């Protein structure tokens, strides 16, 4: 495939010490689950968010699942999600035994159309997951 016929979904942006840090993580065998970089990230992220703790997970799916469980989402609950997103969002809802309620995306950003939300909420709605697609933020107002 020539580079002229390929349109990337996402292009990585390396601006600093990514190669050095990645090589160090591989050399020290701390490439996942634990180690200095995990602790550094958790501390920096929690400081950035203004919270006492930050917790990493093994994947985005795991993070979404844990967030829903922390909200006590389970069978009989509904979770509103965008109809255009990664399957992990749907999987996290289903892992909890909850029912996904899909909301269409906007044509210009492919993000959840917030103008359609009011009709989707019910007495069973326990959570709403928004996904900022391809760098486009959802209209959160």
From the structure above, extract its key features:
alpha/beta; globular; 141 residues; 3-stranded parallel beta sheet
Portion of residues within helices: 25-40%
**Radius of gyration from the CA trace?**
18 Å
Mean pLDDT: 90
Global morphology: globular
Strands ordered across the widest β-sheet: 2-1-3
Helix and strand layout, with pairings?
Blueprint: H1 18-27, H2 36-49, H3 60-70, E1 78-82, H4 87-95, E2 99-103, E3 125-128
Parallel strand pairs: 1-2, 1-3
Helix pairs in contact: 3-4
What does this structure look like?
- The chain has 141 residues and is of the alpha/beta class.
- The chain contains 4 helices and 3 strands, in the order H-H-H-E-H-E-E.
- It has helices at 18-27, 36-49, 60-70, 87-95; strands at residues 78-82, 99-103, 125-128.
- The longest helix is centred in the first third of the chain and has 14 residues, at 36-49.
- The mean pLDDT is 90.
Short overview:
With 141 residues, the chain is an alpha/beta fold.
